[in-house]
Amino acid sequence: MPFWSNPLLKHLAPLLVLVSGILYGQETLIAPTAEIDPLPQDAGLLDTSFPADRPEFPNVGADFYTSDDLIDGSPIASVATYPRPRQSFRSRLYSAMTEALCGCDECYEPKWNLVESASFWVDSARPQNRTRFRWDYGHNMILPDRAEYFWARVGARGPAAQPGSLTVNSLDYHEMSMYAETAHGNFSAFIITPYRSLYMNEAGHSAGFADLHIGTKSLLHDTPMLQLAFQMTTTVPSANSRDGLGIGHVALEPALLMALAMTERDSIQAQVAQWIPLGGDPDYQGALLRWGISWNRIVWQRDQENLATMNLDFVGWSFQDGAYTDPILGQQRANDETYFYLGPGARWLLCGKFEFGVGGIFALSDRHFAQNIIRTDFTLRY
To answer: Is residue 252 one of the residues assigned to a domain?
Structure first.
């Protein structure tokens, strides 16, 4: 089915239009003018604390004045200041980078806020105390044993092939999971307990608890503009892989997480994770790079504890090794291919404690895991 004729995408088209309008209407930074208006006779001192040497305003940097000298009859006196030489783009970029990496307001109090962690497909950088209930619906999944990421090799540790094919040609699935995270300072530990229900068309139906995921998160850098964290997740093969509920082996996933504040209402969230299988089928298991970036924006806010956000996610799975089972050709190499997905989402925070969100992603490539994935979250923070 062509991507643009996807029925689920048609239903979410108005949401995509709204997201594009929001992203188009971003605030712009306007440099102040260097012209100085004369002061009235009863004017007091001008504020001389304006940072004329800020690199983002390279053309600004003339004299400042106080009320002891005369300009057009007004008592103004010059304060000894010196214009900053014009800086190159590289110099201004370096200054902005050092401000993000090193600069920190002494009054800054690290705390969680929704806009820096609103993505549905990119993990949040800041450790939190929370319990999240998530429901995923995946439609039209193909090549499910690719690199043994979703389940184990068909006909081996994985499910049996459907009649008339070498694999399970397609399936839909529902997965309900509970995510529990406990944080202390800049460190947290979490566990994910999923329950999966598979509808494999001619191959039948199966349901049960899927593999457990346990992990830790460490916040490495925290400033008002930038947060960086390292996360390590371990997949524990606790499920029955022959029913398609697990992968049948251990897997490790180290990840680097980032949140970057763009404005008071906008944030970019990003993630790069390397999935490393251990003990799977030697021909089928394969490493892959899971990555994603999300633009998050506050679209409504009453106060810090009652607000709504919208986001746009662009995520991918880049296969580096392994194999998959083609319905006709059988075993094929899985490396050197990337699955691309794009989709919007929206979240609502109530009382700073209850959070509800709905999002979806849609495959941009001909080959994919699920063609569409709809995700619903309910989170309780404490």
So the answer is: yes
The answer to whether the CB of 382 falls within 8 A of the CB of 130 is: yes
Half-sphere exposure of 377 (CA within 13 A, CB side): 24
C-beta neighbour count of 147 within 10 angstroms:
24
For residue 255, tell me if it sits in a domain: yes
Block means of pLDDT (10 residues each) for the chain, length 382 residues?
A: 53 56 46 48 47 48 47 52 66 78 74 94 97 98 96 94 92 98 97 97 91 98 92 97 96 97 95 97 97 97 95 97 95 95 98 96 95 97 92
Domain that holds residue 347: 114-381
Widest CA span of the chain, in angstroms? 96
Token reading at 41: 């006779």
Where does residue 380 fall: left (phi above 0), alpha (psi -120 to 50 degrees), or beta otherwise?
beta
Phi, psi torsion values for 23, nearest 5 degrees? -65, -30
Question: Residue 330: inside a domain, yes or no?
Answer: yes
- pTM, entire model: 0.77
Residue 375 CA to residue 124 CA, distance in Å, equals 16
CATH number at residue 125: 2.40.160.40
Residue 340 lies in a domain: yes
Count of structural domains, the chain: 1
Tell me the three-class secondary structure of the chain, residue by residue.
CCHHHCHHHHHCHHHHHHHHHHHHCCCCCCCCCCCCCCCCCCCCCCCCCCCCCCCCCCCCCCCEEEEEEEECCEEEEEECCCCCCCCCHHHHHHHHHHHHHCCCCCCCCCCCCHHHHCCCCCCCCCCCCEEEEEEEEEEEECCCCHHHCCCCCCCCCCCCCCCCCCCCCCEEEEEEEEEEEEEECCEEEEEEEEEEEEECHHHCEEEEECCEEEEEEEEEEECCCEEEEEEEEEEECCCCHHHCCCCCCEEEEEEEEEEEECCCCEEEEEEEEEEEEECCCCCCCCCEEEEEEEEEEEEEEEECCEEEEEEEEEEEEEECCCEEEECCCEEEECCCEEEEEEEEEEEEEECCCEEEEEEEEEECCCCCCCCEEEEEEEEEEC
